[in-house]
Design goal:
Ferric Hydroxamate Uptake Protein, Chain A, domain 1; elongated
Length: 351
């Protein structure tokens, strides 16, 4: 029994690890590059450090270049990173501001070191435009700042899909046509978790606070191998995470009938504006998880982020106009039946 129990526990742990690995494949990318000397020859065994700029030294990862001078960091979550390269006999190389989007395979230009003392360093800023050279994927990214700053009705991030090249310009909220494909051919994920309704192969029921979105990426064609469920666009949403500094916000959106004009039909009929209330409120909070002087003292080991939103609506139903029998017609008298223009519509019944 004891051995059987251990086998079951090991099997469960293997399933959890496998699920975690698959989860990372959906949202994590990679950063690769090659290190060279001033003459263009490759530099093997160079120490390369990758650090998440928002989470500090505790996030640092170290690899060494291979015999052909290349290095690879994988998997890497979306964010801004700094790469540091240390090689005896060369100046220390520091490149900051490297932006990695969701599931990107980023190939850096060749890095040329300068001969110098160990204490010297060369610092460069990453180029503002980074080309996709590792894969043939074509995609567009909407950042978290753009999600919040662009005013949209209803606070649904899918309204911004139309800003991506290839998405139909007249798309509304929810599923969209991408490169002429059907709306039900797209696939949606949030932090690697599939949120597509498998019953109708569409996404219309899942909502996420726009203030909790770090960015979302729309891969329109030539996606990599892990995206095989649907043959349309892959919409990958990445939520925010904690950083070394606390950050968050609170919001309250309100709309009411006092802000609306009455409808033409109501004005003609003398009907006042109908009751209409829309309330959307919430908050986000992220930062380091620590106990001063006891746990995570440098605030660079453990982070947390939370989001909460409340939505309450009172929206009147659509006005329906129907025709009902008159009092005379209900007794069988159709002698005065007329159409909407007032014309007499009675027809004599033939015996």
């Amino acid at each position: 029994m004891g051995c059987s129990k251990q086998v079951r526990l090991l099997a469960a742990a293997a399933c959890v690890l496998a699920a975690a690995t698959l989860h990372a494949q959906n949202i994590a990318g990679s950063i690769t590059g090659v290190v060279q000397d001033p003459q263009g020859a490759v530099v093997p065994a160079a120490k390369v450090t990758l650090t998440n700029e928002a989470q500090g030294g505790g996030s640092a990862r170290v690899v060494t270049t291979t015999g052909d001078g290349t290095f690879l960091f994988s998997p890497v979550l979306a964010g801004k990173y700094t790469i540091t390269i240390d090689v005896p006999g060369f100046k220390k190389y520091v490149q900051s501001g490297i932006t990695l989007d969701v599931s990107d395979r980023l190939g850096l230009p060749p890095i040329a070191l300068e001969v110098g003392a160990t204490g010297e360093s060369v610092t460069v800023e990453a180029n503002a435009v980074q080309l996709q050279t590792v894969t043939a994927e074509r995609a567009g990214v909407v950042t978290g700042a753009q999600v919040v700053d662009i005013a949209i009705n209803g606070r649904n991030y899918t309204s911004l899909l139309k800003t991506i090249p290839g998405v139909a310009a007249d798309s509304g909220t929810g599923d969209v046509n991408v490169n002429g494909g059907r709306t039900m051919q797209n696939n949606y994920t949030v932090d690697g978790q599939n949120i597509t309704d498998i019953g109708v192969n569409q996404q219309f029921a899942y909502r996420i606070s726009m203030d909790a979105i770090s960015e979302f990426k729309v891969s329109t064609n030539s996606q990599t191998a892990e995206f095989g469920r649907n043959d349309g666009a892959q919409i990958q949403v990445s939520t925010k995470s904690g950083t070394q500094n606390f950050h968050g916000d609170g919001y309250w959106f309100k709309r009411g009938e006092f802000m609306n004009a009455n409808t033409f039909t109501n004005n003609i009929s003398g009907i006042p504006r109908q009751l209409y209330r829309y309330t959307d409120a919430g908050f986000t909070l992220g930062g380091p998880i620590y106990i001063p002087g006891v746990f995570n003292r440098m605030k660079d080991k453990l982070f947390g982020f939370m989001s909460q939103e409340w939505n309450h609506n009172i929206i009147p139903g659509t006005l329906h106009q129907i025709t009902v029998p008159t009092a005379a017609q209900r007794t069988g008298d159709f002698s005065n039946t007329r159409d909407a223009g007032g014309a007499w519509t009675q027809r004599r019944l033939q015996p």
